[in-house]
Amino acid sequence: MKKQGLNPYLPSWEYIPDGEPYVFGDRVYVYGSHDRFNGHAYCLNDYVCWSAPVEDLADWRYEGVIYKKTQDPLNPDGRMCLYAPDVTVGSDGRYYLYYVLDKVPIVSVAVCNTPAGRYEFYGYVKYADGTRLGEREGDEPQFDPGVLTEGDTTYLYTGFCAVGDLSRSGARVTVLASDMLTVTEGPTVVAPSEPYSQGSGFEGHEFFEAPSIRKKGDTYYFIYSSIVMHELCYATSKYPTKDFVYQGVIVSNSDLHIDSYKPAAKPMFYSSNNHGSIVEIRGEWHIFYHRHTNGTNFSRQGCSERIEFREDGTIPQVEMTSCGPNSGPLAGRGEYPAYLACNLFCRDEAIYTGAPGEWMDSRFPKITQDGRDGDEEIGYIANMRDSATAGFKYFHCEGITKVKIKVRGYCRGAFEIKTAWDGPAYGRIPVDFTNIWTEYAADLVIPDGIQALYFTYTGEGGASLASFALSVSWQLND
């Protein structure tokens, strides 16, 4: 069976949130911050890069560390973290990496001759008089840089605006000269913060953080995280520095607002912040975003979905899936790891993982791993207690007659197999107490066609789910 693209699109042991995807040459490159599994804060690791050939988005390659936090002159001891970056190609053909350290209000820049080589510190964004952007009287602190270069001009979008903070006006754009550092215009507001949004059209979806900018045809798409955090919204304009009009939500990492298969207000995944952007790959557009794992804010994984554009240039919201960059539904046969769950919930309809540093308690299922940060092992779902449901979308099912699951834990009950989160069970697979991964199976028939698969645990204790396998009637040695 041909290797398939999956969500998350990187290995389960890699934690790259805040993804900024670009096509350079014949490869897709993703730049982001770098969480640490079981970390105590955001973005504890150095920047790394992953890439894939444009013709095969299942074949991601680790490019290695591209920039270390200690390379910035302000951070020789590494006490500050590298927050979400962005990359652009200057008029000189070099690649420029823009980032902000976690305790300073300024934008740093590094440079490299290749997309995923070893970047070197280049300088700080500054005004013509040498004052650094973010340090002049009246400046707002810089955060989450997003960049777009056209000719000799680079547009730098930054901002962080919490609800009720009167000191932050919104997302701002600053125009830079061809040296990629010197301010020539701005900063000016392109999307308002919550206190200043009345009459703007952004009400209820005001700018919070994560500005990113793309251009499609003659239209600029400003992608950002709104004040409700779990959603990536967008606004459009014919100009890079003004007249942005709010358009809607592209994706929510708790699958809120989508009402095609559930009530729009029902969360289908535990969420918190979100950050990402869009990219065109061989004529198809994708949104890259991140989800939350391990019951905290600090172990985020990159995901992607294909998106469509209506004739008027607007983007309908997409649902979270397990397919990621795959060209269609996954094959309805073979074994799939449980960490591919795009829906994960229980009867306690919590939306958020909790404030930074807080751990979800054992009532809630979570995607996790056993090893340390960087260990190349397969993730799994822990804490599946009575009513916990893991959903996987979508599969091309044909002739499925048996389902196997791999489970461990102090549990006694059964997993029900459904094709809708609230639908009838097509069968039950009993499980029992075991402290090692144990396979259980049941003969059952999944209806043919494009199906979602939901596994709901009912019973005592807590089960961990490592994988499931689908078998068809003509397969042997099952």
UniProtKB/TrEMBL annotation:
Domain of life: Bacteria
SUPFAM superfamilies in UniProt: Arabinanase/levansucrase/invertase (SSF75005)
Keywords, in A-Z order: Carbohydrate metabolism, Glycosidase, Hydrolase, Polysaccharide degradation, Xylan degradation
Alphabetical list of InterPro entries matching this protein: Glyco_hydro_43, Glyco_hydro_beta-prop_sf, Glycosyl_Hydrlase_43_Enz
PANTHER family reported in the protein's UniProt record: ENDO-1,4-BETA-XYLANASE, PUTATIVE (AFU_ORTHOLOGUE AFUA_2G04480)-RELATED
Family: Belongs to the glycosyl hydrolase 43 family.
Protein's name according to its UniProt entry: Family 43 glycosylhydrolase
Organism field: Cohnella boryungensis
